Amino acid sequence: MAERSRLQKILAQAGVASRRKAEQMIIDGRVTVNGHPAKLGDSALPGKDVIALDGQRLEQSGAKIYLALHKPRGFVTTMEDERGRRCVAQLVETTPERVYPVGRLDKDSEGLLLMTNDGAFANAVAHPSTHVAKTYRVTLRPGVNEEQLTKISTGILVDGRMTAPAKVRLLEQQAGRAVVEIVLYEGRNREIRKMCEALGLEVARLKRIAVGPVRLGMLPQGKYRELAKEEIKGLLAESKKKGKART
Questions:
Q1: The pTM is what?
Q2: Which of 3, 11, 16, 175 gets the highest tally of CB atoms within 10 A of its CB?
Q3: Close Cβ partners of 148 (under 8 Å, ≥ 6 residues apart)
Q4: Residue 133 has what DSSP assignment?
Q5: Start-end of H helices in 137-208
Q6: Exposed, middle or buried by CB within 10 Å (0-12, 13-18, 19+), for 242?
Q7: Catalytic residue positions?
């Protein structure tokens, strides 16, 4: 028998948005239950109560979709943008169900972005407590030295607190530029760019090439593919492992 749940939890599990963003949607008057405006703190019975967002009924019985998208530079990781900027939603318009980003990738960065309509999966993978590994290929100017690489790997003071230890290795060094691979285990906003700025380095290009066991590979820019069952299981296994290690 289904149990009543808070509206923000139902919206998150349906893949509409994170719980925090769902709460704001409720506050903004965008959510109704059985035709009546919802208030923050309201609950509903999934499968029985009619929940709608912006007048569109929330469908909770659709198939779960898990995608790997190659986000190009210049696209913001949102489903809509009040400033009229290009959004990742435009790249997944052909999916049979509406999907949402798992975590973020800033406008000036490119590479692998996971998208899904499974709110529980998104929360498990993107929640700060799980620390699923994210791998980036970063082009730096004018170059990088051993001391700077060590600081990135051990932690740098950014916005008043130290960054978590990261894995870093030098892939290529030429006159005026260097390419490094950085593996992060936390999801602070624009973390790599801020770390490099603190060290006097310019990020010329930042590309996410993997999230946990899922790799970008040769997926063309602006295109997406479905995740394999093994990739989904691997992501969930890594999120549980990391979460337990930090409890």
A1: 0.77
A2: 11
A3: 199, 201
A4: -
A5: 146-154, 191-198
A6: middle
A7: 106
